[in-house]
Amino acid sequence: MNVAPGNYQELAEILRARLPKLAAGQRRIANLLLTDPEGTAFRSISETARLADVHESSLVRFATSLGLAGYPALAQLCRAQLAEQAQLVRRFEEAGSHGDLLAEVAENDRQNLARTFARIDATAWRRVVETLAEASAVHVIGLRKCFSVAYLLSYLLHLVRPKVRQLAASGHLVEELRDLAEGEALVAVAIHRYSADTVRALEHAKSLGLHTIALTDNAGSPLAAHADVTLYVETAGMTILRSLTAFTSLVQALSTEVALRLGTRTRDELLTDEGLLREFGVYIRES
Questions:
Q1: How many domains, in total, are found in the chain?
Q2: I need a labelling partner for 245 at 20 to 30 A (CA). Which of 24, 142, 231, 260 fits?
Q3: What is d(CA 147, CA 166) in angstroms, rounded to the nearest whole number?
Q4: What is the residue range of 77's domain?
Q5: Could you tell me which residue, 119 or 264, shows the higher pLDDT?
Q6: Looking at residues 18-47, what average pLDDT do you find?
């Protein structure tokens, strides 16, 4: 008999583990639960069935296969998750006056930041910081819209520790993957739609025995299946592409915490960098 999940985190872990073996309809239900727990918390069984393109009876069977007492128990796990993280209860609310795009974008990003930092698990955060501080080398990959996030993270980490490299920056990903070694760490950054190369790189790193970290948008992300630890970032947006504001804040906080953990080692790295910057005249001299 299945042991029913006691909270949404346990539910998400079970669903991610089962995803590869689920039938098509069950996979659609699982993906809906993973990608939109907030919506599921308040939807009726008929609405959820329509979105998953299954019969209501399929939802009931899916819930009971998890050891739960029907669909209401599934929805309750999602509601409990939202109750613990008050920032996640509210849907996007229109900010400012109609037509005031700047105000609306600012409010949207404010909510993204609140939701992102509210859902970070303290244990997962400490584990990521420890890995990035102590791994023999750190590799970072993020492509297309996530390239800038990967660049910022690799740049900031390289300021405070040695042996940090951004993968695929020169277009030679396969050759770079050849140099990965057990005991190193790889951070993969991707949001929907997920870059296939990013997912494959993380999967390859996992198979080699690297420490794997995913920065992604929801529990249904294919990165989560190959990561030792995952941090989730809210990316809802109303501009051309999804918002990366919370990603930027997260990687800055992460790099700073790594620097604090490394202490004097970080200070030595920064002093060396500062000397080289002066020697090569990187910045304009201020009068």
A1: 2
A2: 260
A3: 9
A4: 8-84
A5: 119
A6: 88
275 or 44: which carries more pLDDT confidence? 44
The CATH number of whichever domain residue 151 belongs to comes to 3.40.50.10490
3-state secondary structure of 110: helix
Q: What is the pLDDT of residues 165-196, one digit of tens each?
A: 999 887 789 889 999 999 999 999 999 888 88
Q: Does 197 reside within a domain?
A: yes
Q: Are 136 and 183 in contact (CB under 8 A)?
A: yes
Domain assignment present for residue 199? The answer is: yes
Task: Measure the CA–CA gap between 257 and 261, rounded to whole angstroms.
Answer: 6
Question: Which tokens is 87 given?
Answer: 């920032």
Please name the residues in contact with 113: beta carbons below 8 A apart, sequence gap of 6 or more: 234, 245, 246, 249
pLDDT of residue 264: 62
Encode 126-151: b = buried (16+ Cβ within 10 Å), e = exposed. ebbbebbbebebbbbbbbebbbebbb
The domain that holds 62 is classified in CATH as: 1.10.10.10
DSSP character at residue 137: -
The CA distances from residue 153 to 148, 168, 188, 251, 278, in Å, are 9, 14, 11, 6, 23
Do 131 and 228 have their domain in common?
yes
- Identify whether residues 30 and 157 lie together within a single domain: no
Q: In this structure, are 160 and 265 located in the same domain?
A: yes
pTM, full prediction: 0.67
Query: Residue written as tokens 């390239």?
Result: 147
Whether residue 34 contacts residue 13, with contact meaning beta carbons closer than 8 Å, is answered with no
Residue 92 lies in a domain: no
191 vs 266: which has the higher pLDDT = 191
Residue 97, in any domain of the structure: no
Task: Evaluate if residue 240 carries a pLDDT over 80.
Answer: no
Round to whole Å and give the CA distance between 222 and 19: 10
Q: Are residues 189 and 232 in the same domain?
A: yes
CA-to-CA distance for 136 and 139, rounded, in angstroms? 10
